[in-house]
Inverse folding.
């Protein structure tokens, strides 16, 4: 087996395993543990992006998600100071409905994708280097790019307003 | 094991999406629900990147990755606003548990 295939199985297994540990960790129910496993999931996803030759996306995945977003999560966990978390019991109803719904979706989705043969005759050709991506971003997709900067400004103003002690 | 192709990536993405959905339904801590939503967004990103890489020669190649770029940006904005909302909610109710936040429930 070629090396990229080996790495695919490694990173895919890591992604799914760490993702499962974010959602249902048998040893700890603390949000901090979940956040740490989410960081690991995001890092292994970045590995998969590198295998798909999406180098720029892999870089911003690490910088934006593993850097900025996860620091925000950890800050909020620290601010909330959740201590009574461990004592709450898991509700059987939520567990059963959740497993049923997710299992049904998985049983439908995974064999369908596996047997669909969407990848037949397609060779991995596209190289997602920064130059190609930047050219497309600043020519055909310039207007959405500018609109996204407005969205970020609105989110910043909203976050500051919501975090104020007294809303006036 | 067979040659790794588009299906492998799509199945990984589907499994990750299912895990995110499970967390959103099952967990009661609102922060972990939020992290599960992030998992689902990431699984969509993985599917988009895989589809971009495996496109046939027809048509526009870059659009998939441009879309992933925008999804990451919007997700960052969404996380900032959502976590500010959670903090504001916690200040009001002193709880980050979905069972305690059921005022709107019929």
């Amino acid at each position: 087996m070629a090396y990229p295939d080996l790495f695919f199985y490694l990173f895919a297994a890591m992604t799914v395993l760490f993702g499962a540990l974010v959602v249902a960790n048998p040893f700890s129910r603390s949000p901090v543990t979940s956040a740490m496993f989410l960081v690991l999931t995001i890092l292994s996803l970045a590995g998969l992006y590198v295998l798909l030759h999406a180098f720029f996306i892999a870089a911003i995945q690490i910088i934006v998600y593993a850097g900025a977003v996860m620091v925000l999560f950890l800050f909020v966990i620290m601010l909330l100071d959740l201590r009574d978390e461990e004592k709450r019991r898991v509700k059987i109803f939520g567990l059963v409905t959740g497993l049923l719904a997710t299992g049904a979706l998985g049983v439908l989705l995974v064999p369908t994708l596996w047997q669909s043969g969407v990848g037949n005759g397609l060779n991995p050709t596209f190289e997602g280097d920064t130059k190609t991506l930047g050219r497309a971003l600043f020519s055909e997709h310039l207007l959405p790019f500018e609109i996204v900067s407005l969205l970020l400004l609105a989110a910043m103003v909203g976050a500051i307003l919501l975090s104020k002690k007294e809303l006036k | 094991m067979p040659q790794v192709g588009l299906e492998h990536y799509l199945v990984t993405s589907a499994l990750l999406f299912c895990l995110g959905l499970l967390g959103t339904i099952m967990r009661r801590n609102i922060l972990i629900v939020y992290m599960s939503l992030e998992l689902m967004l990431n699984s969509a990103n993985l599917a988009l990147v895989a589809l971009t890489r495996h496109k046939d020669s027809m048509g526009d190649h870059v659009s998939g990755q441009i879309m992933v770029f925008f999804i990451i940006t919007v997700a960052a904005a969404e996380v900032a606003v959502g976590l500010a909302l959670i903090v504001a909610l916690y200040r009001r109710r002193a709880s980050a548990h979905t069972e305690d936040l059921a005022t709107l429930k019929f």
About this structure: Chain A has two domains: 1-90, 129-168. The helical segments of chain A are 3-23, 31-51, 55-80, 92-116, 130-139, 142-163. The two ends of chain A are 64 Å apart (CA to CA).
